[in-house]
User: Which sequence fits this backbone?
């Protein structure tokens, strides 16, 4: 049984170092991409303070993301590439750190409580194939250290999982 260990989040660098170690341990020996996405979102939602949503969207085609495993309230299923924060991340090929979603034109509100958002890309040798999305009810919740930490967690998820058809 895997038991997530509470970690002190006052030192973000140390916090993400510990979380990286916990995610590696959690995914070790399992290649199923859906099971690993489910457990990755559960670990993040349990461990990262002040979130109201954490989960995955995967590209179903070049034009559209489809909802994957997540924690939080039920969410929008399909997001067009170029739309919302998630679709914009794919379109621009970069992580998106949105301090206040009310200031982001085209933000898609799945949960009215969300006030800030961090979206990082899932990338393998063939390019971007999805995103990992975190929402918080607190404006300005995420900073560059959170972005770097969550990008590392996304990379661990990708490396641990198999995406062959
Ligand atoms: N806010 C996102 C939509 C997904 S939910 O946050 C879960 C967006 O604008 O793309």
Assistant:
């Amino acid at each position: 049984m895997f038991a997530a260990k509470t970690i002190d989040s006052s030192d973000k660098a140390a916090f993400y170092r510990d979380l990286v170690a916990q995610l590696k341990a959690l995914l070790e020996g399992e290649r199923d991409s859906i099971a690993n996405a489910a457990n990755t979102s559960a670990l993040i939602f349990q461990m990262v303070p002040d979130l109201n949503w954490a989960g995955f969207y995967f590209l179903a085609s070049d034009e559209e993301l489809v909802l994957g495993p997540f924690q939080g309230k039920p969410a929008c299923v399909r997001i067009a590439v170029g739309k919302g924060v998630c679709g914009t991340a794919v379109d621009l090929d970069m992580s998106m750190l949105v301090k206040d979603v009310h200031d982001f034109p085209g933000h898609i509100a799945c949960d009215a409580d969300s006030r800030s958002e961090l979206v990082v890309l899932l990338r393998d040798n063939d390019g971007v194939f999805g995103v990992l999305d975190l929402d918080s009810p607190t404006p300005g919740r995420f900073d560059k250290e959170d972005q770097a930490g969550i990008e590392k967690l996304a990379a661990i998820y990708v490396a641990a999982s198999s995406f062959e058809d």
User: Anything to note?
Assistant: Residues 12-160 form a domain with the Beta-Lactamase fold (CATH 3.30.450.40). The first helix runs from residue 12 to 27. The chain has four helices and six strands. The radius of gyration is 15 Å.
